[in-house]
Write a structure and sequence with these properties.
The C terminus is likely disordered. The two termini are about 30 Å apart. The chain has 2 domains: about 170 residues, 3-Layer(aba) Sandwich (Aspartate Aminotransferase, domain 2), CATH 3.40.640; about 170 residues, Aspartate Aminotransferase, domain 1. By secondary structure, it is of the alpha+beta class. Helix content is about 35%, strand content about 10%. The protein has a 6-stranded mixed β-sheet, with helices on both faces. The longest helix is centred in the last third of the chain and has 32 residues. A hairpin with a 2-residue loop joins strand 7 and strand 8.
């Protein structure tokens, strides 16, 4: 490698994203958009993305039965007590998304909707999914928690189905210190979601201040300096004992259930102001991240046993994460940590391992294979020098170890 890795950020002569206004306009929680205009999008802001999913599913008409989808990133309680019953279906290890070819066989007489999740910012193959849903009379509700700014055949993710759900959690590109949004063109559905929103309490000033403080702390810990001083020493030390403290963080410290009490609040005006300011810079951040991902794929291309994320020509991938398959994953991750490179394990749960899905879901070997992926940093906060160091250390860690074939390739030659 050496010198020379530089992110392709597209046309550098293009205008830079506008700076956020000093005072963003006040936005009240609830429905935005002209009443009675079904062709115009309507959206409902929520203080937490998981609650957006919960209320969207509760409000959607006829959603009683099975919900086929590869991942359901919502509150596990929503599957009980007459609520929609989730089904688990096969998805593709290379893209991490729902496999349209398996969707038809997953539909049962109780199926009412499909929840395609655009994992890591790569849109699902929506045309065949929509065709199956149309033919079988099913609603499509998109999970766009990772996919703000992504597109499929030139159409933005989140605009294909009856509704879409977005997340503005602190690690998302559009960060409002938590929060989420339900989006729909259906005024009746928007009104039902809004009614659920209006039933929740408004957060007090102290609560909003606390949320912002916690968001700043989380963001500081994830910054290069904060992570290097506070978090990385723990991961580096754990690498010598084959421990995985990151898994403990996701599974124990930040569990899926139950809903924290603070989730049941309205979206605050201050969070909305942060989001409006961030929207003015989102395109710039996204294009920088995409350039970093292209450069990283070029740097790792051709290395034995390494599979980089696909980049289909018909889609805009926004790379919320950059997942790769590595040979001898655990050993390679430990070597990366000892070289000073944080490589995070795939942190999505396999649905049959969760209580909500245990009774209904059969084993899903393709989903389990996706847990062999790891995530390499390519985010917009990296400089060209940072990106060069990441690539050099990854290549060095791979050179130090074996180049055994990745297990996800064993069944069919390579993950699809």
């Amino acid at each position: 490698m050496g010198a020379g890795l530089r992110a392709d950020r597209g046309d550098r002569s293009a205008p830079r994203p506008a700076r956020p206004r000093a005072r963003a306009p006040r936005v009240r929680g609830g429905v935005r958009g002209p009443p009675g205009r079904g062709a115009r999008p309507l959206h409902v802001l929520r203080p937490h993305g998981r609650l957006s999913y919960s209320q969207g599913a509760r409000a959607a008409p006829r959603l009683r039965g099975d919900l086929p989808g590869p991942h359901l990133l919502g509150g596990p309680r929503d599957g009980a007590g007459g609520r929609p019953h989730p089904g688990v279906r096969r998805h593709r290890p290379r893209t991490f998304n729902l496999d349209p070819q398996a969707l038809e066989g997953a539909i049962t007489p109780r199926t009412r909707a499909v929840f395609p999740t655009h994992i890591y910012g790569l849109p699902c193959d929506m045309d065949p999914i929509l065709e199956v849903a149309r033919r079988r009379g099913l609603r499509v509700i998109e999970d766009c928690a990772h996919a703000l700014g992504a597109s499929y055949h030139g159409q933005p993710a989140g605009t294909f189905g009856a509704a879409a759900l977005f997340s503005f959690q602190v690690l998302k590109p559009l960060n409002t210190c938590g929060g989420g949004m339900a989006y729909t063109r259906d005024p009746a559905l928007a009104a039902r979601i809004a009614a659920l929103v209006e039933a929740e309490p408004r957060p007090g000033e102290a609560r909003v201040r606390k949320r912002l403080r916690l968001g700043r702390v989380e963001r500081a810990l994830m910054s290069p300096a904060g992570f290097s001083l506070a978090v990385f020493p723990i991961l580096w030390t754990a690498s010598f004992w084959k421990a995985r403290p990151d898994v403990y963080l996701w599974e124990k410290v930040r569990p899926l259930a139950p809903f924290p009490a603070g989730y049941r609040e309205r979206y605050s005006n201050l969070q909305a102001a942060l989001g409006l300011a961030g929207l003015e810079r989102l395109d710039g951040w996204t294009e920088t991240t995409r350039g970093h991902a292209r450069a990283m794929s070029a740097a790792l291309a051709g290395l034995p046993g390494v599979l980089v994320p696909p980049a289909p020509a018909d889609r805009v991938h926004v790379y919320y994460q950059y997942p790769v398959y590595l040979p001898d994953r655990d050993a390679t991750v430990r070597r990366c940590l000892r070289r000073g490179l944080d490589v995070e394990y795939h942190h999505m749960d396999v649905c049959p391992d969760l209580p909500l899905f245990a009774a209904a879901a059969s084993d899903v070997p393709w989903a389990r294979r996706t847990t062999d992926a790891v995530q390499i940093p390519v985010h917009a906060g990296l400089s060209d020098a940072d990106l060069q160091r990441v690539a050099d250390r990854m290549r060095g860690a791979l050179a130090d170890g074996s180049t055994s074939r990745h297990p996800a390739a064993s069944a069919t030659g390579s993950p699809r």
